Amino acid sequence: MSVMKCREQPIFTTRAHVFQIDPNTKKNWVPASKQAVTVSYFYDVTRNSYRIISVDGAKVIINSTITPNMTFTKTSQKFGQWADSRANTVFGLGFSSEQQLTKFAEKFLEVKEAARLARDKSQEKIETSSNHSQASSINGTDDEKASHAGPADTHLKSENDKLKIALTQSAANVKKWEVELQTLRESNARLTAALQESAASAEQWKRQFSVCRDENDRLRHKIDELEEQCSEINREKEKNTQLKRRIEELESELREKETELKDLRKQSEIIPQLMSECEYVSEKLEAAERDNQNLEDKVRSLKTDIEESKYRQRHLKVELKNFLEVLDGKIDDLHDFRRGLSKLGTDN
Q1: What is the largest CA-CA distance in the chain?
Q2: DSSP-assigned letters across all residues of 147-214
Q3: What is the pTM of this model?
Q4: Which one has a higher pLDDT value, 231 or 274?
């Protein structure tokens, strides 16, 4: 563990929810962590390589070596994914903010470019070693033909043999890398197809989400209508309660009137007097109604006078405003005239 710490150093760290594509369906995401975990970029100084590593407790859930052929794709504002052909899976990361996703994607591009440069340098070293080995082999043949035997020739021959072995191993490694590259290409094709299926599935999820959202809006509108109907029902209940109380009051008044009617029947001998009083009250009532009509006419007349007064006041305000504007202009002209007189007096 200490050797790995000395050899690999973290260069970028963030936190995210980790997912892996379902190996059976190649469509659905399977959570690899129950909560947000640390996700780090590591640089291997010895191998000159980069890895993305994430550990949940004692379990390693991401161990992905970055190659120049990898691509990090943003599928939403807070979610991104990349395919690892060596691990034969697709990793997904869910971030808490779009800014964290953007930083991780930028670091992925940076590390991917660094991996490409490291691969190019490695190929250049292999080609240089191969050329040097061929040149040494030719020189060794010429030295054998020259028939100058000695310690230096023996050393050169030994070095030539070593270079031949290195060249053979390099050719074997090249073939091995070609096979591995072909395998990676095939795996990349499979992962690309899985990624396309995942994108199609994501579009389907988006459409389902849109349908659910529309249905949710419709249900909310329906709930609002039902709440409004419930409010109307409650208002009707209150009105019914008020009507019941009014009916009870009227029934009570009716009973009182019946009692009064009984009393009046008992006092029928004073009906003529009551009729006279009733006529007197009617006359008073008619007189009061006439007075009330006169008062209403006066009120309407007063309202008309008030409206006319308000109109005259607005008209007077407008005229006063115009007069003040003209007065301000005259005052400005007078000030200009006085300044002109003062200037003429000064000039004289």
Answers
A1: 173
A2: T--SHHHHHHHHHHHHHHHHHHHHHHHHHHHHHHHHHHHHHHHHHHHHHHHHHHHHHHHHHHHHHHHH
A3: 0.40
A4: 231
